């Protein structure tokens, strides 16, 4: 009973217009209705949808309507029909006409199926479809739909029906849009007649008919009739709506315009003044409608030749519009133009010219459409009139010709064209060209005659008059020197555990066949984030994305130059600076200075300078260029500009380069392609429990938990940016984003997306959110990078139901919206960069399109796939794009940040560039697919025996690499660069395969250790039992791990293993799955390294003999302490590859052979005769293999000294200092005695404070190494008053003693040391 009363009260509130209260009450009713009561729940949900539509909360309405749709499927098709109609209405109101049409068509088909085609419901939907077509300007389709609805209504309803009147009105509106005025008037009159029968004379629907008839009369130049009809409409509005309604103000404006056009200036003035009063009362003084009223009053004063009043009104209008519209709006240009008209009529030609030129300059900058092109032509026309009045006949003729060319293109041989021909004839007369003048007059007369006989002119297609090759050449030079624009594309990479739906979701986004067995790896697809359209990189479409931006900019410069040639620079500059915002696309001051400084002779002189000595590094801004290449580049963009001159470039688009590696490339290899300025999509299988084993196709026995695999992903993409380990937060300012995100985030961004093999429900989303929260709490160090979402995909390829398809499309749209949001916020896309950088990018992509791939290194043509920095500078020089070495480095770094190239800066050797990143990724895929034995074309050339040996030994021969990559036609330089790249990123390590006779490596061919290719199925570990049987003594294990026992990712372990192989590289070295056997030649024993999830296990073993006793080997182990060397290498690797996860220090543990507890290597009892476990009290034999207790007690201070004076100790403070120092890093450089020149180099090479400080500290330590380096660093921090950092450093006792000895008790007091 209470539910009925609440529902009744909600209905009452709805009828009263209290929609917010009604919706709240409806939701209370809905919550109280049981889940089994489907029909009541459906009815209430649909009522909530209606309420939200009235409140214009369309997204909420859409969401509730989708819920109602789910209920309707359980009821009947009639209920489903209602939902489809509401969804169509919502999308129509939102302006999403394509979706609205789709929903209405579904509703129409359902209605025909349920009710038949001649039912009123079907007619209503047909009428609504017509409304959508009108909004889309598809008038013929709209007319068909409206007439279909009218036909049914006429048969089903009485003659004088409101719906029939509405149909006539809608049909009249379509005819009016198509300028079929007779048919429009007929239909409006039919609608008016019916509405007169149905309603009182003062009804708003009758006023609508009057207003539309008045507009038609206006279009037909029947201004008196139009004014009369507008006045009838006004009387109704004054009765119904009051005197301060906006519609009343608009009607006064329309009456004023009609009176003005009819010549009744006095009455027009009165109407516009009433309109102004109402607008000021509604909006206040500063509003576009108020400015419009001032402008209308100015036009009347202008016609009455009251120029001062007209000028004052235009100035008021201009001042308001500059504040509310900005300085780049076409209305601002129109106002300047109108002020120019006033000056012209006052015989102030100089002032008129200034105003006309400002208007023309602004119009040339605006997006090109017929509306703007008409105004540009008008500007040319009035400027020509001024020049003619100033007796500058040649300049006037040039401007008239430009004007007539545009008008012909727009309207054909029309009245304005004939008028211009007459103007040109007058100029010819004054120039003594009588024949040409007569020809112009004859052509004008012919046009007037054709128009008098009712012949309608047709537009004439002409080549764009605003592009002249010589001018465009200058524009190209200006663009390459001065102009800047944004980048619009960044990389979108899918990551996640195996079998987590990455491949399926990529196929969905890139519109591939979902049932295809092929993997969507490295799709080479560009995703338009606004529309969802796909561009292929290997087609010209992708290059057009870059080329359109470049060509549009240079086209804008060309057009402005044409206007500026005739401007008086001194008088214009002050006005432009005061009234016009300088935009990157075209700086007028730069254009003026450039065109005056570099005339045609200078330009040709520069091009003709073809100095061929390219060995010297270019050093000046205007270095010599390759004439052919320079002109080819110029002509290329000129042709694009000719094609794009009328394109709409106002809407900026964002694109994502979609990457998904599949299973062919390990996490270690993927680090080569990780970017800070990238978005990563981490896919999660929501059915995966956080403690469940995550098994891959090749690795079913792994012990990694689900969270371990997530950490592997996060470390590889977030910690993998060695140069950008610490990033500043970026503010999130989009309140419309429908996901719960933090107020700030850091790059790179990782968006969590769910994967499910069934229908996605609210429970599915809840489970996904719980899983996300678990990951958040487990890895708090990544909280600023992780972006949660409610996006969950149904990834069951067998589910092809319409509901699943619709759900996937909704998920794709939500994901694209989220990606676009964060793409827009990326600094690399927000900052403008020189346009020559984009030109270089376009050149690189053109080489791929034309040749299939870039030129190989032995070719004389650029660009090559592998290039040195010097070769890039030669390419830039040839194309006239080179500025300086520093500019080149910045350019390469920017393209690297976008993922367009790979800019390799090795620790040693020269820098080089991979210009085709996709080509490199394909090489790695093929190379390691062959090693893993996957089905690839390259694999088929090799026997199973060879593949098995590679996967067993982890050793890859150079001959194998050469054969696998034969299809890529690599030359020696490219192959060496790829191998060097793999070495730099610690993927491979050259094997020292010289035998005892010291035979050369070349004789046997080079071999490489590749630990990542070994799989557990082939060689999981070394059998310890077999070693004992073979007469070896094997020690107990010593474990290296983080104190918080956190998981050690493979992305860190394998580079660490490579560093150990480089240290102990001999024929005895042997690899196995996640481990290695190393021979320490100087110490006469072997070392086993094994990864065991969160620990690295060490064992040593040796061949038992009379010369090597157990005690001797233990003393050697104690003396050399291999665990410290191993731990130091692991620490350096972890610091480099996962700085964000270094939350705890490393420690050494052994396992008690009695109780199984793990013991710190130095945590034992004080009994000097034995080593006892602190847990069970029994002798811990495992400690005896790694520590000599007596020697330890004697040498404890030496151990501390060794630790503090080793390279690892002072440098262990560098991470904390670099992380905390911030802007004070330069002060620290001064305190440490680093020269300012070196500081400038560090500043230029790095982007954030962490990188700058870290490089500074490393350079200082290398140059000034001493035993008391920590002491010097502590004093420097104290000197610059960064004692907060001192408090965070963990000094050992020797370091503190150094401070005490040096008398720095002040620092010791701050550290609370006694």
TrEMBL record:
Domain Death intervals: 1210-1293
Swiss-Prot/TrEMBL keywords: Repeat, TPR repeat
Transcription recorded as keyword: no
One BP term from GO: signal transduction
Stretches forming TPR repeats: 123-156, 165-198, 291-324, 377-410
SMART domains: TPR
UniProt cross-references to PROSITE patterns, sorted A to Z: DEATH_DOMAIN (PS50017), TPR (PS50005), TPR_REGION (PS50293)
Domain of life of the organism encoding this protein: Eukaryota
SUPFAM superfamilies: DEATH domain, TPR-like
Listed CDD domains: Death
UniProt xrefs under InterPro entries: DEATH-like_dom_sf, Death_dom, TPR-like_helical_dom_sf, TPR_rpt
Keyword Repeat included in the entry's annotation: yes
Protein name in the entry: Death domain-containing protein
Originating organism: Trichoplax adhaerens (Trichoplax reptans)
